[in-house]
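Entry 14. Ran structure prediction on the chain below.
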Amino acid sequence: MSSSRHRVTEVDAQELVSSWRASRRALPAWCASKGIDGRSLRSWADRLDRLPVRFVDVTPVPVPSPRPGLRLLVGDVTVELSDEFLAETLARALAVVRGC
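Output, structure tokens:
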């Protein structure tokens, strides 16, 4: 009787361990549903947890803060515009407000 064993790479193991942990399922149940030996996955998880920490360079991207806009009060109607508004759009909006 021959047994075929699949050789698992570190990348494969990382994906499997991440998938298992993300599932939040118990190891035996998750492994049984995937046809994976739970002892092997536990061994990989322990081994991966002992690896040195790997750092990734992350460069923050500045997020523009919202500019203060313009607030128009016309009767009981408030119209708020950003600094990038178009004059034509304002004219159309005011025409609608006047028509109410």
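The first strand starts at residue 70 and ends at 74. Will compare against last week's run tomorrow.
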